Amino acid sequence: MSSPSILALSTLIGTIVGAGMFGLPFAIVQSGVLLSLFYFLILGICVTYLHLFFGEVCLRTPCKHRLIGYAGLYLGPWGRALVTFSTIAGTIGALLAFLIIGGDFLEILLSPLVLIPAPWHHILFWLPLSLLMGFGIRLIARVEFITTTALFLTMGLIFLIAAPRISFANFPLFPAANPFIAFGVILFSLIGWNAIPEIAELFRAKRDKRRFDNLIVAASAAAIGLYLAFSFSVVGVAGQHT
Questions:
Q1: What is the C-alpha separation between 218 and 215, in angstroms, rounded?
Q2: Cβ(23)–Cβ(182) under 8 Å?
Q3: Cα 143 to the chain's mean position, in Å?
Q4: 76 — phi, psi (to 5°)?
Q5: Using CA atoms, how far apart are residues 158 and 187, in angstroms rounded to an integer?
Q6: Is the pTM of this model over 0.85?
Q7: Per-residue pLDDT tens for 122-131?
Q8: Distance between CA atoms of 153 and 80, rounded to whole angstroms?
Q9: Which class for 117: exposed (0-12), middle (13-18), buried (19 or more C-beta within 10 A)?
Q10: Which of the listed residues 105, 154, 235, 242 has the most CB atoms within 10 Å of its CB?
Q11: Separation between Cα atoms, residue 121 and residue 55, nearest integer Å
């Protein structure tokens, strides 16, 4: 796989994998393992196809747009208005979740070393990432490659540490509370359409559709594999106490 493909793959995986991952173990306990695996199968297929459809639109449209621009171009004013509302609301909600969780994690990491007022952890998490956005997709893709690699290594370490303590008795096969809790959490955790227009730019010149499609499928499969390894490590150790 060439360097642009590696960078694009890491960017898409980094976009898909986010705050939703940390809600998965609890959601799986509440909805049961069997139903959660069913959700992963059905939603994984559906979301992957949505990413492929969106990627097709990005490659076939001569001018570069984002989702709102494509909606206006192909669906007209009503489509643009609907997608504008949903995109703004969804993006604000997702970024708020990332900001809260990222700041909390940073506080856990820094608290043994230095005492910083609570709001500053979230500011320190937000500021460098916001500045990074001004340098373009290629630098972001390189940073994503480093952070995605670190994430997979960290989750692999968590799995190795947890493996001897995993008990199959801790896995609830059937719903313990609400069978639909895992549906929304899993759906949110699989979505990465925000990155599709950006990584399509890396393939637009060569119009290498086959490699672009394979990259989207590989990113979805890698994200699901990471989610399952992390979730079953936590649930296998903690069980109903997750």
A1: 5
A2: no
A3: 16
A4: 90, -170
A5: 24
A6: no
A7: 888 888 888 8
A8: 40
A9: exposed
A10: 235
A11: 36
pLDDT digits (tens, 9 = 90+) for 67-121: 889 999 999 999 999 999 998 998 888 888 888 888 888 888 888 888 787 788 8
Three-state helix/strand/coil letters over the chain: CCHHHHHHHHHHHHHHCCHHHHHHHHHHHHHCHHHHHHHHHHHHHHHHHHHHHHHHHHHHCCCCCCHHHHHHHHHCHHHHHHHHHHHHHHHHHHHHHHHHHHHHHHHHHHCCCCCCCHHHHHHHHHHHHHHHHHHCHHHHHHHHHHHHHHHHHHHHHHHHHHHHHCCHHHCCCCCCCCCCHHHHHHHHHHCCHHHHHHHHHHHHCCCCHHHHHHHHHHHHHHHHHHHHHHHHHHHHHHHHHC
